[in-house]
Amino acid sequence: MAHLLASNPTTSDKLICPNFTYGVRTEPRTRNACCSRVRRKSRGCGRKGLVLQCCSSSTSSSQLSYADQNVGLQIESDGGKLEQQVEYLVCEYGWMVRRLIENKDETRQAAQVQAEAFHIPVALFNDLFFQFFQAEVLAGLLYKLKNSPPNRYACLVAEPAKNDLDSPHLVGVTDVTVLRDQDVLQHLPAEAEEYLYISGIAVSKTFRRRKIATALLKACDMLSILWGFEFLALRAYEDDLGARKVYANAGYQVVSRDPPWTSNWIGRKPRVLMIKRTSLPK
Question: In this protein, which residues make up the domain named N-acetyltransferase (predicted)?
Answer without folding.
Answer: 105-279
